[in-house]
Amino acid sequence: MAAVEAEIVPALVADSAPVSDPAGAAQTMVAPSVAGAAAAAVAAAARTGSEAKVSKAALATKLLSLSGVFAVHKPKGPTSAELLNRLKEKLLAEAGMPSSEWSKRKKQTLKIGHGGTLDSAARGVLVVGIGRGTKMLTSMLSGSKRYVAIGELGKATDTLDSTGRVTEEKPYDKITQEDIEGILQKFTGNIMQVPPLYSALKKDGQRLSTLMKRGEAVEAKPARLVTVYSISLQKFQPPLFTLDVECGGGFYIRSLVNDIGKELASCASVLELTRTKQGPFTLEEHALPEDKWTIDDIAQSLEHCTSLLPDELALKKSKPDEPSDQVLSCEYITLNETKGENDIVETL
């Protein structure tokens, strides 16, 4: 900016060369003043630009220092991966590092991932790990999850929810609230459950849902042992019924609703699904809405959520990151909740 000032100021002074008439003298007095104002304006602009760069650099440094786990509120519509990508883009943009830049720079990475997939039709708590927090997701999220599910009697779909193609319809008019409450005990405790065909489970390295969408023949996975800690009927207004379910990992709410329909000599599918709790994170208290996806808000959330973690994980988080002045780049990863050939990420 100094070179720019040097070009502007002499030009203004040259125009103020003295002449014989008094008016010229007046111009001689005014022009330097104008030149000074112009120089001051340029200097101020230079300072503003410099301050903006410093601010972005500080935000980038703060972004790289974030480490731990927090929760965001996933709405219906996007997949969990799409939502994570949106979060990543917002943080990078705030730090002055758009994706076109970080994709070219691999000296230092911002790691960010989620620890449990929610289908696009579902909403609720999605736990996110950032920095070293990505390594905490698997061990921390092995606890229970809680869901509120609205099931619809008399209708079955190929996906077991409202997004699929209707495959069967049966009467439900004779089913009562007592009938539903009477069978819930059968779905409590350690039970055997067949996962849905449209799921994140894999065959030959590809998700079953992907194979199904291609029209390929897919065999159902065998029933496996899962755990339901509690299940209760919250509301019954035929054909709709609302369940509150607390379960362990690997459990599918869609399969539960489908099995309940069969047990009632009818059929059923999931109309609405909300995850209200994952690990210690609840939808009401901890899940950040999208307007809170800022570096400062996430930093505050990480600090608040530290108290929710088991001591051994909190101690890991408190270890300082290695200092680095390398360039910011970014990658995101999705950690699997359960390791194994099925590559289970989360349960629906």
How does the SSE layout of this entry go?
Layout: H1 2-14, H2 22-65, E1 68-74, H3 80-94, H4 99-102, E2 109-114, E3 123-130, H5 137-140, E4 145-153, E5 155-157, E6 166-169, H6 177-183, E7 189-193, E8 202-203, E9 206-207, H7 208-213, E10 224-237, E11 240-247, H8 253-263, E12 268-278, E13 281-282, E14 287-288, H9 295-305, H10 311-318, E15 329-332
Parallel strand pairs: 1-14, 2-15, 3-12
Antiparallel strand pairs: 1-3, 2-3, 4-11, 4-12, 5-6, 7-10, 8-9, 10-11, 12-13
Enzyme class: isomerase
Family: Belongs to the pseudouridine synthase TruB family.
Subcellular location: Cytoplasm, Cytosol; Nucleus
Question: What can you tell me about this protein's structure?
Answer:
With 348 residues, the protein is of the alpha+beta class. Residues 1-32 and 317-348 have low confidence and may be disordered. Helix 1 (2-14) runs antiparallel to helix 2 (22-65). Helices cover 35% and strands 25% of the residues. The chain has 3 domains: 2-59; 66-141 and 292-316 and 327-332, no CATH class; 145-278, Pseudouridine synthase (2-Layer Sandwich), CATH 3.30.2350. It contains 10 helices and 15 strands. Strand 2 (109-114) and strand 3 (123-130) form a beta hairpin. Strands 1, 2, 3, 4, 7, 10, 11, 12, 13, 14 and 15 form an 11-stranded mixed beta sheet that branches. Strands 5-6 form a two-stranded antiparallel ribbon. The longest helix is centred in the N-terminal third of the chain and has 44 residues, at 22-65. Its EC number is 5.4.99.25. It comes from Nannospalax galili. It is found in: Cytoplasm, Cytosol; Nucleus. It holds the Pfam family TruB_N. Residues 104-253 form the Pseudouridine synthase II N-terminal domain.
